[in-house]
Amino acid sequence: MKLKTRKLLKKRIKVTGSKKLMIRSGGQDHFNSRESGKVTKNKRRDKEISSANSKTVRQLLPYL
User: Fold this and answer.
1) In the chain, alpha helices (H)
2) CA–CA separation, 5 vs 15, rounded Å?
3) Vertex 39, ends 49 and 24: CA angle to 5°?
4) In what order do the strands lie in the sheet containing 21-24?
5) 23 φ/ψ angles, rounded to the nearest 5 degrees
6) Is 19 left (phi over 0), alpha (psi -120 to 50) or beta?
7) Which tens digit of pLDDT belongs to each residue from 8-54?
8) Distance in angstroms (rounded) separating the CA atoms of residues 42 and 33
């Protein structure tokens, strides 16, 4: 039987060449002027999903 992919996660996660799962950091739309430059700069980067969470994500995205 074919497994279903969770489309919500598929749209938010990118897989690198070495099979790492990367996700965009949240809270980038507005209210950024009150935050320090360090925080604003870090929000621009993608973050790697932790190994504990990546096991769960891989179950929800079986065909990565």
Assistant:
1) 7-12, 37-43, 51-60
2) 15
3) 30
4) 13-15, 21-24, 46-48
5) -135, 150
6) left
7) 999 999 999 998 999 998 888 898 899 999 999 999 999 999 989 99
8) 14
pTM assigned to the model: 0.75
Residue closest to 28 by CA, chosen among 19, 18, 39, 12: 39
CA angle at 34 for the pair 28 and 36, rounded to the nearest 5°: 80
Taking the C-alpha atoms of residue 63 and residue 43, their distance in angstroms, rounded to an integer, is 28
Domain residue spans in the chain? 7-26+35-60
Residue in this structure with the two tokens 């929000």, named with its chain if needed = 43
